[in-house]
Amino acid sequence: MVEGSTLLRCRTACGTGGSNPLTSAIFKSPSKYGITMAKRCFWAKLNNPLMVEYHDKEWGVPAHNDKYLFEKLLLDSAQAGLSWECILNKRENYRKAYSNFNYKKVAKYTEKDIQRLLNDPGIVRNKLKIRSSIENAKFFIEIQKEFSSFDQYLWSFVNHRTIQNKIKEHRLLPAFSEESTRLSKDLKKRGFKFVGPTIVYAFMQAVGLVNDHTTDCFRYKEIKRLSS
User: Fold this and answer.
1) Could you report the per-residue pLDDT of 85-125, keeping only the tens digit for each?
2) What pTM did the predictor assign?
3) Got the DSSP string for the chain?
4) Where are the domains of the chain?
5) CATH assignment of 66-227?
């Protein structure tokens, strides 16, 4: 849920204001858009096929590929102060702008690249976030050198096993956890920016360190099986 000044920032940065022309068509014929009417987590909005597909196929699936982990870390960091829907709508723009999320290339970005990104209307043009994304790529590589992979480093914070929560209602979902606080603290110590406990928890949810699909969601048991 996004409200107040955060909603205003989302509309300004992401163009999320106004009605979605697909909404009525999707509700009238969801199967036409590849959407089933199964019970989902509350945030998987049927009026945005990208949100539904992301929920149904990606969110919470245990991830171990470093390139994908960097992509999610970069996108979740960009989300700070905004909504995930805002960033998801711009994901392909980010992919193009950030060399297909190749962290080795991003780590070598120069001032010329920073200006290019600041002039790119397809992404959130926040100078601090853009500069931090490049610095974070450098620190990401340093972690790989120390732990052989970012994956090994990341999953050590949950003893290499997905935390299986049993959340019945979305209002009971935590904003952060003991594990996300520890991970956030360690990332910050290593130089990362835009990695507070809440952003880090969102990242952990997304890449499967924690299963936070509500128990009535059809993906809850599927993710649990994938994590076993």
Assistant:
1) 999 999 999 999 999 999 999 999 999 999 999 999 999 99
2) 0.85
3) ---HHHHHHHHHHH---S--TTHHHHHH-GGGGT-------TT--TT-HHHHHHHHHTTT-----HHHHHHHHHHHHHTTTS-HHHHHHTHHHHHHHTGGG-HHHHTT--HHHHHHHHT-TTS---HHHHHHHHHHHHHHHHHHHHHSSHHHHHHGGGTTS-EE----SGGG--S--HHHHHHHHHHHHTT--S--HHHHHHHHHHTTSEE-S-TTSHHHHHHHHHH-
4) 66-227
5) 1.10.340.30
